Each structure stands twice: as structure tokens, then as C-alpha cells.
Amino acid sequence: MLNINKIVLALIPWVLPLFMACNNNTKAYKQADTHQEKTIEDQDNIPDKLIEVGEGKSVDGNLSAKVFATDSLTDSYQELFIQMEDSKGTVVKKAKISLLPEMKMGMMAHGAPVIQPAESAANGFFKGGVIFIMPSSIESQHNWTINLLVDQMGEPSNRVNVPIHVKEVKEARTIAFDGGDEGRFFLSLIAPERLPVGNQFIRFMLHRVSKNEFPAVFDGYEIALNTHMPDMGHGSEGNENAKAAGEGYYKGKVNLSMPGLWEVKADLLKDGKKVSTEPVIFKIQVKK
């Protein structure tokens, strides 16, 4: 809950001006999110087992879409697999799709960091990604929608809205933090809840909070990594800072030397100097 409150506080300066945009959000969110033109890694890698997490149809009925994932969606880095059909039931294989995630919170609304799909489907799926920065809440009427703006050659532009539900992850995988003069950021750990023992690669994505935009950040930054095992009172050696790997991804190494609960502390560096002004700590269960 603490992390959710920090995320809401991080967004308040930017979502308040969107009060009047809620009834006409197509334009607002198209402007907000289409800055991110990069595509997700391994576009052709489609998992064998996927579950449907949402579906929708365009207003004119000419286009339908289903959104799949490898598991139920959580407020973290999520790869999405989109399958579209035209009114005749023909699978769409080529299209420019803009993913526009939208969280409605009563009179307020905001987007989320996004990784746009390539323009060609792999095995019938367009693969993209969203970093959901907070969970859905039925009680508070906080609801996520994946808006798909679709452009096909020779066809008018279309839009499909896909309502989805996002559960709260057990341990935070996306954390908002202050970077001093550099602004506010979201750092996302791309990892399952549990990891094996050993020295291993670890990946992150870094996004800046800029009004209702969340541009990927990779120029001149580095993420210093330190590990600590709170139950045992010790850390580990052999960690390597996460360095930019392109398109907002960062890759480093951590040495999780024994089973149990570990904390990975991340500090944002700019040109070798620490700029993050508050702790960013990810908790990871390490299995035998």
C-alpha cells in the first residue's frame, strides 16, 4: 500500500490538469503515449501458453481484439500479446498499433510506460508491453483500459478499447522515486517473485515521469546495485551495476548466494554520481 501511495503522489501534479480531458481522452492519450516508438525485445518469441486477459470491439464493429498474457496481470512490467480480427474473422497480420494504457480514477486519469508492438504479427500476435504503475481497485473504481489505436494500409484508422484487471503484486516490482534535479522516475525490476540461488543477470526498465508521458531513459545513466539479506544481516559480493542495454532496458548482475529473502537496493547514477534521493529497494525470495 505504501508503494501505491507513493505512485499516486508522484502522479498528482500531472493528473490534475487532465480533469477536463476525461470525456475526450483519445486525443489526450494519443499525444501522451505515442512518444515511445521503440519496440519490445524478442518480437518473434511467443510463449506456448497464454491466457486471455481482455477483449473488445471497435465502435463500427469492423475490428475486434483480444489481449493475452502469460499469467494474470499485476502492477509491474507485463508483456502483452494482441490478436486482432476484421469483421470477416480474418486475422490481422500487419498494422501499426499504438498501445495507450489508461487508468481512470473517478474524475482523474493517467497513462503508464509502454513498449509499442512491431507492425508485423508473429504467429498471429502483436507483442508489446505495459508497465502498470498501480493495481485496479473495484472498491475505489480505479480501472485500467488498454486502448488500441490501429492503422492498416488502405483502411480508415480505428480504435478498440479493452478493459482489463490488474492485481497488486505481492512484492513491488515498479517503484517511484525522486531523482533530485533530474526529476521523478519509475524503476521496474523485470523478474519473477522468486529467483534461484547464484550470481545471475538482472534486468530493469527506467522511465521518467513527464506530465502524462513516461519516456524511457537510457542516456548517461547507470543503476548501482547492492544486495542485503535482512534475516541474516549480511550482503554479498560480485554484484555489477546495471548499465543501459537500449530502449530503456538496463542489465546488471546480483549475487544471491543463499536461499531466503533478499533485498536489492538500487541507486540511480548520472555520469557516475548518485542522483536518487530516496531508497529504491526490491524484495526477492531466493529458492534452493
Automatic annotation (TrEMBL):
Question: Pfam families given for it?
Answer: YtkA
Signal peptide positions are 1-20
Q: Which UniProt keywords apply?
A: Signal
Domain YtkA-like, which positions? 194-266
Give coiled-coil spans as residue ranges.
none
Q: Which InterPro entries match?
A: YtkA-like_dom
Q: What is this protein called?
A: YtkA-like
Q: Which organism is it from?
A: Olivibacter domesticus
